[in-house]
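Final report, closing paragraph on structural work. Over the funding period we assembled a curated collection of sequence-structure pairs, and we close with a single example.
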Amino acid sequence: MPIDSSSIDLIITSPPYASNAIDYMRAHKFSLVWLGYKLSHLSQKRGKYIGGEGFGAIPLNGLPVFTTNVIKDIMEMDKKKGNSIHRYYCEMVFALKEMYRVLKPGKTAIVVVGSSVMRGRDTETHHCLIDIGKSIGFEVPYLGVRKLDRNRRMMPASFIINQNSQIQQRMHEEYVLGLWKPYSY
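Its predicted structure, as stored:
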């Protein structure tokens, strides 16, 4: 990003769910057109979203042990889903590294994230992002859980509770990660 290193006091963000658990392009396309993007270019943009299904130019670099084990579990059940979650966590390495770079020492990034379920296996996104954050140099003084009111969220669930619905199964809570950039001595 065109932002100076160690220049930001606070980052608050909510990255996408892993492996397009929500179709963000579909949710954002009208806003993107309003901002000047051509409708015909949106499919190209979709492939660049964090957590997309494609494997284009994203180098699948090494990840910390806990995260690697989550990926291996999913890969054993479904190679395509495993590759997708691998891409997601590799992209989040880039995002968290950039957050670390631009934050001033002693400042914090607040990351609000939900977990996804792939082939019945929780992606443990909050634990994996903590794992990745620590490997980059962040300290993690806070992990909170926020219960989601199913009737007040942006994408409400059906009025009929369906325990077999994947979207209803996975969207009951989100996690608030406090990632602190330590002072360098």
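Strands lie at 8-13, 103-113, 117-118, 121-122, 139-147, 173-180. The chain has one domain: 8-180. We thank the funder for supporting this effort.
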